[in-house]
Design brief:
By secondary structure, the chain is of the alpha/beta class. 36% of the residues lie in helices and 23% in strands. Helix 2 packs parallel to helix 3, helix 6 crosses helix 7 and helix 10 packs across helix 12. Bound molecules: adenosine-5'-diphosphate and ligand LB5GJZVW. One of its GO terms (molecular function) is ATP binding.
Length: 418
């Protein structure tokens, strides 16, 4: 029976969370979109279910409506705790939807108070005295300040959240966390008694996540990045690795994040690659789609085993250039990838690495994927997946969050598919 349920605001975030639950031995299914009632029985066998939505950058009312539907499904599945998964870098604008979604989930779950835990120390996200750090930098001094969709303007998580919710937000700092789960529980309850509905809890290492997870085990709602899932009670089940599906290999990078830029630069040295031309997409989307398909297929015909890469940002100037070519550059790039992905699969692609949360959503939707099985972990937050497509053969996928993964991920990941 399913005990844990999650709602993730993007597809990479969903696989990030599922990978962490899998590493605790929990069998975890990722469903793309709110599943239909007749699809629920297949999910009941899992310990945990993640419903992946593509709502990170959509209007709050629309996002909340989808989240309420997803919450109803998790209730139907009998989940005793709902995990509200947003980005470990709290990606949102002041009009963003993290607050409204959490507010709706307080109502849906009947929770009096919910923790806010963006920390994921394995991936360099820590929260210290309420401030979110990316590596050594406060969030608003990290590369996230230049994000094309969600430029981050503050590092204090309570300030970011307070801009998006009418509810009071409290903080529990690391000195309390280091005293253990009972002290954290007491501090959360005390904050709740003073009227707070959210409590941002510091986490500077994995032990803190385990402490917070223990303290909140019986809470109907927790919120955070994926790190808190690493504190889930472990099951002694050795997770099996996914087998590789034979076929062509392709990298589709639509992420503008700095880590992806470095991965793109690294991969350009080892594989054929081509940068998307936003101007050409504006002028003739269908023609450009065909040209890109032909170009990839020709590269495969030269060497069937070598991956081929399409990318949209090689360095930070490409975002400004893309925007200069069209104010709709982001949508055009997402549309291109979602249309191209199924055509690449028809042309033989069975192993795809996709970079960027929004981009991964577009590609998965384009491929018609309904459920993802989570396999071997490549690096914190990044795993191989098997995507089940509606009326088409399955594919292996990596849906990589923009800022995650080792620099050589695009060339090294393939070896990890048995
Ligand atoms: N050259 C570009 N110019 C403008 N927008 C771009 C460019 N390349 C990618 N984008 C858009 O930026 C967004 C990146 O978001 P996402 O895929 O979530 O990755 P990340 O958050 O890591 O940057 C997408 O909407 C993508 O289409
Ligand atoms: O929590 C995280 O950092 C990731 O799971 C995530 O959501 C990253 O988003 P993108 O950078 O948009 O892929």
């Amino acid at each position: 029976m399913t005990v844990l349920g999650a709602i993730a605001d993007d597809f990479t975030g969903a696989t990030d969370l599922a990978g962490n639950w899998r590493s605790r031995g929990l069998s975890t299914a990722v469903v793309l979109g709110v599943p239909e009632a007749d699809g629920l029985d297949a999910l009941r066998a899992h310990d945990a279910v993640v419903i992946a939505l593509k709502i990170r950058s959509v209007r709050a009312e629309k996002a909340v409506a989808e989240v309420r539907e997803a919450a109803a499904v998790l209730r139907e599945l009998g989940c005793t705790q709902v995990y509200d998964k947003y980005c470990s870098t709290f990606d949102s604008t002041p009009e963003g939807n993290i607050g409204p979604i959490a507010d709706a989930l307080l109502e849906e779950t009947g929770a009096r108070v919910a923790v806010v835990v963006p920390g994921f120390p394995d991936a360099g996200r820590t929260v210290y005295k309420g401030h979110l750090f990316v590596g050594n930098d406060p969030l608003d001094r990290s590369s996230m300040r230049d994000h094309p969709l969600n430029p981050m303007w503050d590092s204090r998580v309570s300030a970011l959240l307070s801009a998006q919710t009418p509810h009071a937000v409290a903080e529990v700092h690391v000195d309390v966390v280091k005293r253990g789960a009972a002290a954290v529980r007491e501090a959360i309850d005390a904050a709740g008694a003073r009227g707070a509905r959210y409590v941002v809890v510091d986490s500077i290492d994995g032990a803190d996540l385990r402490t917070i997870a223990t303290a909140t085990r019986d809470d109907p709602l927790v919120t955070g990045g994926s790190g808190l899932a690493l504190g889930a009670e472990a099951k002694r089940v050795a997770p099996t690795d996914l087998a590789g599906i034979r076929g062509r290999r392709v990298v589709l990078a639509g992420s503008a994040s700095r880590a992806t830029q470095a991965q793109v630069q690294d991969a350009r040295r080892t594989m054929s690659s081509r940068k998307l031309d936003v101007r050409a997409l504006v002028d003739d989307m269908a023609g450009e789609e065909q040209r890109l398909l032909d170009w990839v297929v020709e590269r495969w015909s030269e060497d069937a085993d070598r991956p081929v890469m399409l990318y949209s940002v090689g360095d930070v100037d490409d975002v400004a250039a893309g925007r200069g070519a069209s104010p709709h550059a982001s949508e055009l790039i997402e549309t291109l990838y979602s249309r191209l992905a199924p055509r690449l699969a028809d042309a033989g692609a069975s192993q795809l690495i996709v970079a960027g949360g929004e981009t991964s959503g577009s590609v998965s939707q384009g491929l018609g994927i309904s459920v993802l099985e989570v396999g071997q972990l490549l690096s914190p937050g990044v795993s191989w997946l098997r995507g089940r497509r509606r009326a088409a053969p399955d594919v292996n996928l990596v849906l990589k969050s923009g800022n995650f993964g080792d620099v050589d991920l695009f060339s090294s990941a393939w070896e990890r598919l048995a």
